[in-house]
Design a protein that fits this description.
Number of domains of chain B: 1
Number of helices of chain B: 4
Order of helices and strands of chain A: HHHHHHHHHHHHHHHHHHH
Helix content of chain B: 25-40%
Strand content of chain A: under 5%
CATH topology of chain B: Alpha-Beta Plaits
Radius of gyration of chain B: 18 Å
Shape of chain A: elongated
CATH class of chain B: Alpha Beta
Shape of chain B: flat
Number of helices of chain A: 19
Distance between the termini of chain B: 18 Å
CATH architecture of chain B: 2-Layer Sandwich
Number of strands of chain A: 0
Oligomer: heterodimer
Number of strands of chain B: 6
Order of helices and strands of chain B: EHEEEEHEHH
CATH superfamily of chain B: Dimeric alpha+beta barrel
Chain lengths: ~425, ~140
Amino acid sequence: MRDVPDAGVDVAACIDAIYRTESRRIFATLIRLLGDFDVAEEALSDAFRAALEHWPRDGIPANPRAWLVSTGRFKAIDGIRRRARFDSLDDRIDEVEAIPDESIRFDGDGIEDDRLRLIFTCCHPALSPDAQVALTLREVCGLTTEAIAQAFLTAAPTLAQRIVRAKGKIRDARIPYEVPAATELPARLDSVLRVIYLVFNEGYSASSGPSLTRIDLSAEAIRLGRLLVALLPDPEASGLLALMLLQESRRAARTSPDGEIVLLEEQDRSRWDGALIAEGSSLVREALASSAFGPYTLQAALASVHANAKRSEDTDWGQIVGLYDVLLRIEPSPVVELNRAVAVAMRDGPRAGLAVVDAILERGELRDYHLAHAARADLCRRAGDRDAARASYARALALAKQEPERRFLERRLAELRDDIR
Amino acid sequence: MKFLCFICAETPVDEMSVVEGARLFGEYAAFTEGIRRSGHYIGCHRLLPPATACTVRVRDGKVSTTDGPFAETKEYVGGYYLIEARDLNEAILVAAKIPGARTGCVEVRPVADDTETLRAIGVPAVQRENRDHSTFLKETT
């Protein structure tokens, strides 16, 4: 049953490795068995402490994961019994009896189901979006509260309180620890995908900031995306993973060394990550073939068309316009219409795009959206109408809030002035 | 566990046309019959519109009564269902079938069942012991 202790094997290092790869799985199962996040957390550390104590002497058990789950469960029950001597015994007895005895079923599919349960519980739509993100990073990814707070530029006590409140709501409102039934799954999966993409974007947009000490949220989101795809094969989950991989592939090229935005068409494509593009593109193809895809898959498909163009001029704009058409049918949005208009301009010339942009601006929803005016300005510039271009850049600049974007618009305005002189 | 589902509406049934009102009452009849059969039903009432409300406060021992609801909002509580559900997900499933959820919204609130509350509102000790006070995970297998 047990390996004979081998002097050449460093048991502590082995436990360390098991902690890294298995601790979140074990934690997810302990939550199911013990019924409480905090009790499970304590049981998890008790179990690893026991491993450090016993394994060097007795050898590493044949199934370390099962040993750790079983030990954690036992330690928690023991703790509840010990506290029962001080509390009213009746309440505690119930608690112990409610803990299912499943010491036999610790491996196989059950464990992976527990991780999925944990993801769906942390991303439950009854929790605020902020809380969903914090809880997922804390409980599913196992990040420390301090690291999460730092990544989101939030004070650690604020974030800690957000997590405590979320756990309180899970307990009080009785949010169940389960994978939703098939009928609920699409809506609930949306919530999970939104959390993962939010984490990704937070990391992606912060990538130019002082990131040396901050955890890489984009990498964490991609890890989560991979986990979800492995646990729950679903075209949109694959689509989201593809989208993240394809965006990540451009990370090195999307800002200049001094932190300025580099537009897609001006990026040095040799700096794009070919392995990520290949993986993302193949995931997109699979998802599109399933015909059960959604907006993430379509956005990934768009990113894939760009990613697979060797030069900016090689971009298949006809295909991009077509993908935007499908995306608009699934999820109508003026911003997507604007992106489509830019693609139309690339396919049919700036005047054609300008007509579409003006029609969108006419409707009013995007009148105060700086990128709509920036897009119009760019099309006017390409069409040779400098006065109109200047007016639209100025309007965009008046509406833009982010510094790198403002600097970009100022540069464009200055270029137009230089051209006139 | 008990949940109270507040139905928030914009248009009271009293202001609907006879045909619309009859259709809505028909939908509520079918829904209520459904949750009676499924065992989720505990109780329900429709409330008269906020125009019929008054608000009572007692300050320094003096009762003051004012016209109207305590908060002026476009949406108001038009009625409620008290239901029994295994957990929040089941409560959400029931709430989603309330006809009012399609035009207005339904707020789902867990009912407190701690010992102090139950004692304060006079729930007999026998029932108190029978209440299930397990946490969210214990019923899943």
